[in-house]
Amino acid sequence: MESALENVRAGTHMPIRQLFDVLFKSVTVIERILSDIKLKSSDESYVSLVGKASHALATVASRLPEAPKPELKPDVFEKLASEASTPARADSDLPSFQVDDEPEPSAAAAPVKEELIHKSIETSHPQASVGTQPSVVSPATSPSAVKDREAEGATSIRVPVNLLDNLMTLMGEMVLVRNQVLQYSNKSEDLEFLNMSKRLNVVTSEIQGEMMKTRMQPIGNVLSKFNRVVRDLSNDLGKTIHLNLSGSETELDKSLLESVKDPLTHIVRNSCDHGIETPDVRTQAGKPAAGTIDIKAYHEGGQVVIDITDDGKGLNKEILIKKAIEKGILQQSEAGSLSDKEAFNLIFAPGFSTAAKVTNVSGRGVGMDVVRTNIERIGGTVDLSSVTGKGTTIKIKIPLTLAIVPALIVKNRGEIFAIPQVKLEELLRVESSSAEDKIEILHGTPVYRLRGKILPLVDLNQVLKMSSEATNYRDRVTNIAVLTAEHCSFGLIIDEVQDTADIVVKPLNRLLKSLQVYSGATILGDGSVALILDVLGISKVAEVKYDKIQEANKAGEEVKKMSEIQDFLLVQLNSPTKHCFALGYVNRLEEFKRKDIEFSGRQRVVRYREMILPIISANEVLGYGASEKKGDTIPVVVILRGGTLYGIEVDSIIDTLSTTVDAEPSMVRHPGLFGSLNTKDELIVIADPFELIALAFPDLVQHTSKVPKKNLIGETAPCRILLVEDTVFFRRAIAATLEKSGHKVSMANDGQEAMEILNGSPEKFDLIVSDIEMPRMNGFQLARNVRKHSSYAKTPMLAISSRADKNYTEEGIKSGFNLYLEKLKAEDLLHAVRALTQQEEAA
Amino acid sequence: MSKMVTELITTFQIGSDLFGIEVMNVQEVAKQSQIVPVPLAPGFVRGLVNLRGQIATAVGLREMFNHHSDSKDSEEMSVICKLDGNLVSLIVDSIGDVVEMEQSKFEPPPHTLPSDIRKYIKGIYKAEGSFLSILDLDRISRELSPATETSSRINS
Fold this sequence. Notes:
heterodimer; A: alpha+beta; B: about 15% helix
């Protein structure tokens, strides 16, 4: 009845909206009465339900005459009834359909319909309504309809779905056997056998094709329901929306059809609610008052594609981004660099809803992420494109069937795996010989530059823990399968690509499913078993942090200083956190035998290169307590400070760390510690070896200048400082310290660059802070040059150096430095800066 | 003679211990075919086998029970059962006879058995000179279908 009404509507295109509204409502009420009659046999509840229904119908009936063109009514009923009586008639016949074609049934059926409404009104009497029941269903069971159904029954039978499922499984087996026979026949010389196997091949393929068809259903079964959905929604929302369906005859596996139903409904509802604007907004925007939603289904490349296009307002990038930041899905810093597509894809993030207010239609928190999950569960993809103000298109691609999938067969460490082709974008073969075409290592993970974009790589061997040793990608040819997971692509490094094949997916038990990396197993042509890789699962297990890598990539391109790699020496102390020293401090690494350690007074020393090396324990100085670990040898980091070597004993030396992560000076000063490194995986404490030494030998004479301890009143005026330093770590650490106290810092790598900046800069610097030992032009030369130059000769200069012995200090002052400090004591540095700049101001 | 309630048991050996499964629960007994290992899977999952077009999970009972006796040199056998709709191939050292046991001789396993083995055993039959331990297939099945919260443990 409902579909008949829809067809009439499509056929007449008459704007008799209210009439149809009433009809739809009455249909709903009748449906309810019917189901109630079926469910309830008890008289009491029945009476109340019928009472309710009859009341609803009475109001409906009372409104019927108010329909704008009541005179149309009988006509419509005739068409309706005759259409209902000829269900076998194709839709295309409908517009030209004439009542006189089959006058008798239409005449018979029309009164039935009218009678139906009258009878329904009478249903306030329970007895009468029981009597009405047969006539309620009468339009469907009118004599000619029964005849048609009988005719149809002769050519089709009902089959339980699980019987089809079983047949499908057996079909899969047959395909496998066929494959085995084919492989075997290739080895055979027997011509007759060869012919037979060829024949078997053809027949099996045919059966397979036909078998697939049994489960196929036209997608129109689902799409046609949207006519009603859109209609109801547009009424509720006060919008006018036309729904155009095309490709309804496109066929899809029944189970898939069921699974796309809900996502599709959601998308259509979304389009109605968020997409299409209200008529007045539309007219203002110069669009027709009625919105249009097109749903188009078609085959493409072995997949079914469903396009849902609306001509509404489209997605607004700014609003999306704002919303995403509000919901904590996106970081403010990431927002600026998002492409349109990335921004639109935000709506697929969990917990995202752009509806300004929550309506009963949408905006209830569960949204597009569920759509995406559901589609991806059946191996499909969702793609979205939108033009702000013009509309939105959502493209859903789903496989034809789930039972047999084309897959790429790969071999890893002698084992065979299958990767579904749907997830495969391309295959790469990287040869290490070419310079620009190679696998690089970023933060310890391999990446590959694919057409200028960084593609994170995942080594299958490592995800599956098939080999423990780190693979060397440099000296070999690497095969990479570029795969798509939820939000990103990644490259899977595999040993060997073998073949493509149609495989029959067999489920795994839950234990193996829970490993996440396998979606099933299959039996290959030779009878061997292969695991099917779950691409999404692998990306989860390997934790492809696409965003992170992209972030690092962008940061690297934007700011040069961000990509500068700093080196640290990682050591283990008697503390849960790892510690490190800036590698610039470290003179040597030594391992001394415990028995070689002697005592000079209470100081532990060791004879080292014909001198005495005092050994201090980092644990002791930092107050961590002596370590439990006692070996025969002690690892020692040798530091040169003020011309003397010192040994710092640590528990163990772990590794060096190259990182682009910025060192952060610690908020709370702890003697001996500089700050921390917040790396991807952990927090590492940066120890200051000079301070450690200073703490261990408090009486040590310092050869550095004494910062004038004047009473400096008030805040330091912000000044322009030129920082000259070659070591990345120090340059960034010093700059950070200075910038934190409000100064503006320009940086130079060495004296030469500093001079260039001084000469080129229109502004005067208030202070030059310089290292001593630098390539090209050292600090002394720089100081002399600065002092010679007229325009900035009077700029105060501060030397900071790790070479802080007497000779150096004197030489520094002689060359023109105002103050000579030992490296990296933040307070001293700031104090000195303040002293020097205020001196300047006073002068 | 009073009517005895008896049960038919398929017996097999792991090391020198005798185990059994009710005949009704056994689909077939087969020679061990080629196993495809599953990386990342827990140790007792030896891998997957192709059982005439069906895929069965091969479970090494020796590993599952933490049975430390020396493995035999002879070829291993597999007892194939259907647990929870999944085919499972239990790998054992050797297959024994099918024996008929009186249900009255069935006893719960003593508490002193190592827990690794005891949790998979439903009970013990006393046969002449030896004990026959009956496997709790439901328990093994549960081991193969962990709830989601235990999956992380297996992964780690």
